[in-house]
Amino acid sequence: MVAGNWKMNTTIPDGVALARAVLERCGAEGTVDVAVLPPFVHLWPVREVLAASSILLGAQDVFWEEGGAYTGEISPPMLAGWCDLVLVGHSERRHLFGETDAQTAHKFAAARRHGLMVILAVGETETERDEGRTVPVVDRQLEAVLAEIDAPPPADEWVIAYEPVWAIGTGRTASPAQAEEVCAHIRAAVSARAGESPRVLYGGSVTADNAAELFSRAGIDGGLIGGASLKPELFADIVAAAALAALAR
Ligand code: PEP
């Protein structure tokens, strides 16, 4: 899977144009699941652009309540049935907006109650890595979610994105070995706990230049792409790298 997180970028007309450009370049992709995650207000018009394609439509976040006095929030029932997936636990939610492991877990569980596929983002800060705490931090983030739900979703209905915080939007990509090591740990930890691991993506300054090497590593099943997802030609090159890596497996 290659998923493009547009974050808080583009106006609606620019987002629709970006969706058209992604459709033009990636619409025929048959090997890799391609997803775009526009801002909330773009979801419906982008859905209309992508309607006849297999490109998945995702939201960047979701709230855990069904409805009510939660100004500014979007609930799972508002998305279910027409939006394919939601991202929860992105490091910007955790670190800029103070979202806790428990809140991320509530979001995950609520999205699943409404049948939405979920991408769960996990990852350590630079200090946590320097202190040798990458594995315990990632384990804690995963465990918070697994403890909240009765049973893990089927492996094809959720995805884990390993995104070291220090690599997101910084141009400092994790080395393929670093990414592979943590993705392998996640896969093993989730398999031990849930029976079967979902796909594990790497995210953090993935570009058209480093994607092929990252995706060639065993256990990295694609990428969650921020900055490069705003440039359709770069995003398409990253999708092509994932397709080649998938064919080589
Ligand atoms: C992200 O937002 O999930 C991300 C990985 O961003 P970037 O590719 O810009 O580092």
Please characterize this protein's 3D structure.
With 249 residues, the protein is of the alpha/beta class. The chain has a single domain, classed as TIM Barrel. The protein is built from ten helices and eight strands. The chain has helices at 12-26, 43-50, 76-79, 91-96, 101-113, 126-130, 134-148, 176-194, 211-216, 232-248; strands spanning 2-5, 34-37, 56-59, 85-88, 117-122, 158-162, 199-203, 223-225. Strands 1-2-3-4-5-6-7-8 form an eight-stranded parallel barrel, surrounded by five helices. Helix 1 packs parallel to helix 10 (232-248). 45% of the residues are buried. The structure holds phosphoenolpyruvate. Residues 5, 7, 163, 168-169, 203-206, 224-228 line the site of phosphoenolpyruvate. It holds the Pfam family TIM.
CATH architectural category? Alpha-Beta Barrel
Q: Mind describing the biggest β-sheet?
A: 8 strands, parallel, barrel
Strand proportion, as a percent range, falls in 5-15%
Structural class: alpha/beta
User: What is Rg?
Assistant: 17 Å
Question: What general form does the structure show?
Answer: globular
CATH topology: TIM Barrel
What strand line-up does the widest sheet have? Answer: 1-2-3-4-5-6-7-8
Family: Belongs to the triosephosphate isomerase family.
GO cellular component, one term: cytosol
InterPro entries: Aldolase_TIM (IPR013785), TIM_sf (IPR035990), TrioseP_Isoase_bac/euk (IPR022896), Triosephosphate_isomerase (IPR000652), Triosephosphate_isomerase_AS (IPR020861)
Subunit structure: Homodimer.
